[in-house]
Amino acid sequence: MHELGVVFTTIDTLEELGRENDLSRITRVTMRLGEVSGILQDYFADCWRWACGRTELLKDSTLELETIDAVTFCTACEKTYGTVEHGRTCPFCGSDQTYLLTGNEIEIKEIEGC
Ligand SMILES: [Zn+2]
Fold it and tell me: Which of 17, 54, 55, 106 has the highest count of CB atoms within 10 angstroms of its CB?
């Protein structure tokens, strides 16, 4: 149900943006989703269609999804590596002193409306 919650929060944000910008319709929304944000894109798109169908503003909107690759930084050897392949342990030096640089994002990148 994570996806549905995120969809509702996103729609709230878009409705606010719509009001601020005097939009009567939002026709296209581009979202960027991090690879390890926990969002399943197919399920997100289903929730999106369902929830947007219940709003005036977003009824006929198109959703575009972009993925942000998950990248982890190792503070021991100062290298970066792919999080999905290697998890929390650095593949170069074996350290677990690592943190996620990108990949946890759930962002609205762009909207088009009128
Ligand atoms: Zn390392």
Answer: 106
9-23 pLDDT, tens per residue?
999 999 999 999 999
Ligand 1 ion: nearby residues, β-carbon < 5 Å: 74, 76-77, 90, 92-93, 95
Using the mean position of ligand 1's atoms as its centre, give its distance from the Cα of residue 108 in Å: 32
Q: Give the C-alpha separation, 114 to 55, whole Å.
A: 15
What is the Cα 105 distance to its own chain's centre? 5
Nearest to 106 by CA among 35, 49, 29, 16: 35
Distance 103 CA to ligand 1 centre (A): 19
C-alpha to C-alpha distance for 73 and 93, rounded to whole angstroms: 12
C-alpha of residue 92 to centroid of ligand 1, in Å: 5
The string of pLDDT tens digits covering residues 55-99 is 999 998 999 999 999 999 999 999 999 999 999 999 999 999 999
